[in-house]
Amino acid sequence: MGKQENRRSQSAATVPVALTIAGSDSSAGAGVQADLKTFSALGVYGLTAVSCVVAEIPGKVSRIEPVSAALVREQINVLAETFPIAAIKTGLLYSREIIKAVARAIVDFKRDRIPLIVDPVMIATSGDRLLEPPAVEAYETELFPLAALITPNLDEAAWLLETKIKDRQSMEKAVRELAKKYRVSVLLKGGHLAGSAAVDLLFAGNKLTEFSAPFVRGVATHGTGCTYSAAITAGLASGLSLEDAICRAKKFVTQSIRGRLRWTLRSGKALDALNHSP
Ligand code: PXL
Predict the structure, then answer these.
(1) pTM over 0.85
(2) pLDDT band at 6, cuts 50/70/90?
(3) Does some domain include residue 2?
(4) What is the number of structural domains in the chain?
(5) Most ligand 1 atoms within 8 A of CB, residue of 33, 54, 90, 257 to mutate
(6) Among 39, 42, 41, 43, which Cα is nearest to 19's?
(7) Is 50 inside a domain boundary?
């Protein structure tokens, strides 16, 4: 091997690899597209297993169709047999069948205890339902038990606990209840609560930790959840502790919102998107 080739293969070997199992967002602010851009920005090589294809623009889901469960599983299998995957995240998984196939595939190759981040995507920021209702139970029984961290937002947490979360106090109660109910570390994202700060609560190892950032107002937030969990996954793939990975990911999301991209359309309306290379 020549000197140059040798150097190249050495630097390639140091790039961590992460896998996202999620849906495709045609507008590229959320889903596997957001995950890949986030992985790249944080120095991680991203792999994808696509679960469904969503035809959408920010604020409007037009059509959504699943990939077959067998094809989702095969994407994971071929990648797991080949790449040194250091962390995995799941995003939108669409149906009970797909969640089960993903859980089985992960059980098959998690021999090395690769951390799994489960972002239980149920509803888009636009309010459109993205997950079939019977799939919630599959999350609870099949996927949460395999996770190192789950990252629900307030709506998802409220759905899982069949309760309402309307302030900081009920948020704290909810994060503890979720961790106890599913025996897993939980990052409850409070971004949707009105206030001057976007506060998230982590309950892990019987310890509560708060992550706070200034709330950026009047800005499209399509894809922030995907970006956040992808950034956490990138951190874990790079060897950061869970707390450090969350802390860095929170900063990354805030920067992506602050540095948002904007196009002025012919109608005069402005179209905003997250900036994944802030
Ligand atoms: O932001 C939630 C989300 C996740 N994944 C995909 C999506 C969306 C939102 O629309 O399309 C693929």
Answers:
(1) yes
(2) low
(3) no
(4) 1
(5) 54
(6) 39
(7) yes
